[in-house]
Amino acid sequence: MGYRFKRYFTVRRIAYTALFAALAVIANSFTVYLPFMGASSNAVSFNYLVCALAGIFLGPVCGGIVGGVGDILGWLINSSGGAFNVFITLGSVLLGVIPGLVHKIPKLPPVVKILIAYAIVFVVCMCGVNTFGIWFYYIRGAKTYFVYLLGRIATQSIIMAINIVLTCLTYYPLAKYVFKDGMFAAGRAPAPSAKAAGGSDHSAADGDKNI
Fold it and tell me: What is the pTM of this model?
């Protein structure tokens, strides 16, 4: 277990995770809240984009770390007067986990995987965890959950669509120039050559999936 942990969390993977986490903090810190229906709960945020790309290129574990760290630190920097909401943090974690898991589906074009991931994120995170969390903390005394959800769907659909377009536009340049040759596709550091290791190239074949 310790060996596989070290091979997964390479220096390069940790560095990229930290970079994405910093971008997630910025995205959360500079979120623009739009007051609707008496509550500042519709927000223009690019956190979807950052967490989705982290999950896609680094795997669901690192994607979840980016989402969680970005939300917590972003709230500490700019809470906008609101209390810490554990549901929003959970939703942010899922923003990185879901695209990371969907991206492991074989034989599908990247754009299709992105669309599938965002569709699941929209249902699970936006319509589910995030909306419920905001409603539970701030709205439940004023209106029912489903009434509040209906008020968020239109605005959040537009925000989601913007993030989908940005994710598709940034995916290919990142895949070609930054995360080229599937550097994290195996979820481990590059295996030593047979000559250097004194053995077969198949000796490190185990655990070659993104975690």
Answer: 0.79
